[in-house]
C-alpha cells in the first residue's frame, strides 16, 4: 500500500530556500522526504528572490510564522548584515545560509557550511582539519568558509589560491588576525604550481570548474600524489576532471554531494530540534542528481 499523500493544513510549518536563481536547487527534494519520515507537519519550498528584496521577504516570512529558510548565493552576505541575531557559526563565517525565525519575531542566522564540510571530510576520508596542511582553491564564498573553518579547527597551515589576488589577500589577512597560530601561505599564481599542491594533505576545490565533464582539469595528475585527500565542492558530476586527475595519481577523491547533504541536515536540526534521517536525505540527493540507479 502506498503511503498517504501529504495534505498541508492550517498548522503546517513552512520552510524554504531563497536564491537568485533557485530553480536548480535540490533542497526541496532533500528536505521534504526527511520531514515526512520525521513526522513533521511541514513543507519545504523554493523561491526566487532578488537580493534587493531579501530582507523585506525575510521580515514577512518571520511575521507569518515560517519555520526557517536556507539562503544560497548571492543572499548569504546580504542576510548577514540585516539579521537580529547571529550564531557564532555565522559570525565567524561572515555569512548566513540558515535562518531561524524565533517566536518573538526576531531572526537568527547560522552558517552550516563549515559543519557540512567537516562532516564530509570525516565521512569520506576519516580526516579533520586539526594539525593538517590545507590548500583552498578559490577564495570566494565557499572557499572562504572552508578556509576559516580549517583555521578555526587548528589546521597547521592554510594555503590560499585564487584567480584574482584581491580576495586571496583579504582572506589571508583576516585569518592571520583571527588565528595567529595558523600559518597562512598565499599562492600567487593560478592555478597554483604542482610543488605547492604536493605539500598539502587536504585539497579543497571551491570554484565552479568541473560542472561539465568535458572541461580540462584545473590541476593535472602531476600536481597530486598518493595519500592526499581531494574534495571538489561541485557535485553535478560524480567525478570531475580534476578528481579523475587526482585519482590517477593515487589521491583519494570525493565530490561535494556529502557537503551539501550535511549542510541540509544541520539546518533541519536547527529548525526542528529533532534527529534527522541522514540516509533518507542522501538517497534523495543522489536520485535528484544522478538518477535512481546511482545508489542501488
Question: Which properties best describe this structure?
Answer:
Rossmann fold, alpha/beta, 296 residues, 11 helices
Give the arrangement of secondary structure elements.
Blueprint: E1 13-19, H1 27-38, E2 42-48, H2 54-63, E3 68-71, H3 75-80, E4 85-86, H4 88-93, E5 98-101, E6 107-110, H5 113-125, E7 133-137, H6 141-152, E8 157-161, H7 165-178, E9 183-187, H8 194-198, E10 202-205, E11 229-232, H9 241-248, E12 252-254, H10 257-272, H11 278-290
Parallel strand pairs: 1-2, 1-3, 4-6, 7-8, 7-10, 8-9, 10-11, 11-12
Antiparallel strand pairs: 3-5, 5-6
Helix pairs in contact: 1-11, 5-6, 5-10, 10-11
How would you explain this protein's 3D organization?
The protein has 296 residues and is of the alpha/beta class. The protein folds into two domains: 132 residues, Leucine Dehydrogenase, chain A, domain 1 (Rossmann fold); 142 residues, Rossmann fold (3-Layer(aba) Sandwich), CATH 3.40.50.720. Helix content is 39%, strand content 18%. The strands form two sheets. The protein has a six-stranded mixed beta sheet, with helices on both faces. A six-stranded parallel beta sheet has the order 9-8-7-10-11-12, with helices on both faces. It is globular, with a radius of gyration of 19 Å. The two termini are 22 Å apart. The mean pLDDT is 93.
